[in-house]
């Protein structure tokens, strides 16, 4: 499965401009109950990320003074296994999804958790099913009694 299937698209991503104040970034984080914001310049090119840590640990008045510049990003075609590996090895919470310097979305640990929660396996035939709610019956063998169990390990994880 690819990033494009589970990421939050750019239309729903809250960003902050590098010229906004630290307090404005803190307000956005607080109001939207999120822990990080992509930082863009006036041309809407991604120039960094500002996190809760940046706001409370770094000194500066503007977002450009406190943001993290060395961002790690992926493309919408990146495999979810690679995303998982990066999030774990880099000990970060989110990855920006970038195409030619422009933000196309964001993918976070919680997006991966939601994806794992959608996998079910039939205890009779072993069919793997990906759906938001537990299926009432197996799509392959049709069994209805104890039709599915949560998959212990999602494919690719």
Automatic annotation (TrEMBL):
Instruction: Specify the CBS domain's residue ranges.
Output: 7-66, 67-124
**CDD domains named in the record:** CBS_pair_BON_assoc (cd04586)
> Keyword Flavoprotein: yes or no?
no
Q: Which InterPro entries match?
A: CBS_dom, CBS_dom_sf, Diverse_CBS-Domain
Which keywords does UniProt give here? CBS domain
Pfam families according to UniProt: CBS
Q: Answer whether the UniProt record assigns the keyword Oxidoreductase to this protein.
A: no
Q: What is this protein called?
A: CBS domain protein
What organism is this sequence from?
Thermosporothrix hazakensis
């Amino acid at each position: 499965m690819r990033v494009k299937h589970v990421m939050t698209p750019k239309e729903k991503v809250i960003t902050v401009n590098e010229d906004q104040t630290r307090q404005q970034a803190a307000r956005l984080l607080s109001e939207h109950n999120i822990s990080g914001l992509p930082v863009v310049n006036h041309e809407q090119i991604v120039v960094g990320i500002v996190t809760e840590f940046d706001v409370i640990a770094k000194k500066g008045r503007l977002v450009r003074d406190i943001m993290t510049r060395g961002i790690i990003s992926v493309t919408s075609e990146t495999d979810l296994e690679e995303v998982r590996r990066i999030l774990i090895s880099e000990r970060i919470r989110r990855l920006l999804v970038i195409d030619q310097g422009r933000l196309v979305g964001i993918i976070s640990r919680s997006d991966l958790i939601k994806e794992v929660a959608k996998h079910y396996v039939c205890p009779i035939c072993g069919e793997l099913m990906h759906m938001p709610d537990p299926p009432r019956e197996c799509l392959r063998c049709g069994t209805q009694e104890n039709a599915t169990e949560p998959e212990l390990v999602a494919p690719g994880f």
